[in-house]
Each structure stands twice: as C-alpha cells, then as structure tokens.
Amino acid sequence: MTTTADRLEVRISAQDKQTIARAAELQGEGVSAFARSVLVREAERVLEAEKTVVLSAKESRRFLQALDRPFTPNAKLRAALARGDKLGL
Description:
Blueprint: H1 14-27, H2 31-50, H3 57-68, H4 75-87
Helix pairs in contact: 1-2
C-alpha cells in the first residue's frame, strides 16, 4: 500500500471545483482521490509523449537517408576531438 505524505495545493475556481466534484462522484471517488488519479494519469501521458518522436513520411525518409550517409565530422567537431585527444579523453 502506498502512503501519501506530500501535499499539493491548487487554487481553482468554484465552478471548476464543482465540475471536479461531480466527476469524482460519478466515479465513486472523493475529490482528492479523483484529482490525484487524474493528475498522475495526465503526468504519465505527458512523460510518455516525450519519449516518442513522430515524423512525417518526408521527414522519415530524410532521417533514414541521413543514417545511410557516411559520417564526416565538420571542422568544429574535428577541433573538439583534437582537444579531447590532447587532454587524454
């Protein structure tokens, strides 16, 4: 069983609170439990969306073509690699 110790305070309008209370009641939950479950679910959705990159067909082709091309470092990267070699990195 998870214990809850931290608090999160949110200021909302009376109308928003009534809406949330009605939704919580329909779900058979108290307002706090309902709000917590909705907040956590939405936070997990946002975090999961950050893990996924969606490319159009054109972008996907360009990306795959770039992966197929041989890698050639530019001047700045060659200079940085040379500095790293001097430092023993």
